[in-house]
Design brief:
Layout: H1 17-31, H2 35-89, H3 99-122, H4 127-172, H5 174-178, H6 180-195, H7 205-218, H8 229-236, H9 257-266, H10 272-289
């Protein structure tokens, strides 16, 4: 989502080439009375004036687009401030460690926008500087998506950890999970042991082992073969593929439903499949290198 940081302010120059040439042409005209040459010079002056007018209009259009995007960001920030204020008034301040990082990214974005405007007014904004600010805009957008992705992963982490822990017991005691009464017996036995813990004392894996073994003995459930992948999926509720996502890039990045939404929002100019593929190759790959994914 690249952005151009431009304003319609005309860049002033100390000398106007039209005036310089006009003066030269007036001298030539007094010595060379050539109607065709005079018409050619007039056409050149007209074309230069038209070119400057086109450039001025193009700058105005880019500034309007930039101002619209900036207004949208301001509205979003205003809504966020309103939400935070309401939460504080209710005595429930949000605890979001990622918001400070997002605020810092938005500040850098505003600083870059201000710097680009200053360069245009100073007459130093050229093609090289435009590419410089384009790169800043791309980096900022990618960083915002990465932070939002990390937030989603953090929210999903407890559930994923619970699923991993459950899968371990499903694989070790498949016969207990396959028998509804035995499973309920084991769960009750485990809860009874938890109730006997001292305040502040944490449950242990040994307590789970004891509850499972009691259930096996009570219902005379002997060791059975290890369940197949499809059986583990049925018993645990976890897809055997490892999460139900897709990895369009083939790089081991699992694209969940939330990540797919982020990809289509970030690369709105691409088709959904192309947006997901690009997200996986850029944002997803970066997060995987940081060991976040």
């Amino acid at each position: 989502m690249a952005e151009n940081y431009l304003t319609p302010d005309a860049v002033e120059v100390p000398f106007d080439d039209d005036e310089t040439e006009s003066a030269a042409e007036s001298v030539d005209a007094s010595t060379v009375a050539n109607p065709e040459e005079q018409r050619a010079r007039a056409e050149r002056r007209k074309e230069r004036a038209a070119q400057r007018e086109r450039e001025r209009k193009e700058l105005e259009e880019k500034l309007r687009a930039m101002e619209e995007r900036e207004s949208q960001r301001e509205r979003e920030l205003a809504e966020l401030r309103g939400f935070v204020t309401a939460q504080r008034q209710q005595g429930e301040p949000p605890k979001d460690p990622y918001q400070a990082r997002l605020d810092e990214v938005y500040k850098r974005q505003q600083d870059a926008y201000t710097a680009a405007q200053a360069e245009v007014k100073a007459g130093t904004y050229d093609e090289a500087r435009a590419k410089h600010y384009e790169q800043i805009a791309r980096d900022i957008e990618r960083e915002k998506v990465e932070i939002h992705t990390e937030r989603v992963l953090a929210m999903q982490a407890p559930r994923q950890q619970a699923n991993v822990a459950r899968q371990r017991w499903v694989e070790k005691y498949p016969e207990v999970y396959a028998n509804q009464r035995a499973y309920q017996f084991a769960a009750a036995s485990y809860e009874r042991r938890k109730a006997l813990l001292e305040p502040g004392e944490e449950p242990t894996a040994e307590m789970v082992e004891q509850a499972m073994e009691e259930a096996r003995a009570q219902f005379k459930l002997g060791p059975k073969r290890a369940p197949t992948a499809s059986e583990r999926e049925r018993l645990s509720g976890i897809p055997s593929s490892g999460g139900g996502g897709a990895s369009p890039s083939g790089g081991g990045v699992v694209v969940t439903k939330d990540f797919r939404k982020m990809a289509t929002a970030l690369y709105s100019d691409l088709s959904e499949d192309e947006a997901v593929k690009r997200w996986a190759n850029e944002v997803g790959k970066s997060l995987r290198q940081k060991k976040i994914l």
